[in-house]
Amino acid sequence: MTTPPPYYGPPGGDPAGMPAAPNNTQGLVGMILGIVAIPLVCCFYLGIPLGIAGAVLGYLGLQKAKTGRATNRSQALTGVICGAVAVVLGIGLLIWAVTAGQNINWEDITNNSGN
To answer: Greatest CA separation found in the chain?
Structure first.
């Protein structure tokens, strides 16, 4: 009869099979900022900086999703698209406001308001 080999205990250290938790924060915040930026274009042009922030964070979230560190590619893509749409709308509205403001005859408005 032979004796079994000695038991040395479980191996030390962290288990090698534990994947890191996905980091979805940038894609989620990019999506929120991009969606909120579209209606805020009309409110003192707040949509332009929010749209830029949403597009940048969405792009960073897309990069994380491509490398496998995030799982919310669609949210990040929504942030990029909505942020870009908000920036384009904001710049278009700003250009329209400047050109329409030049075409207004302010003398007629001030002269007729006293009547």
So the answer is: 119
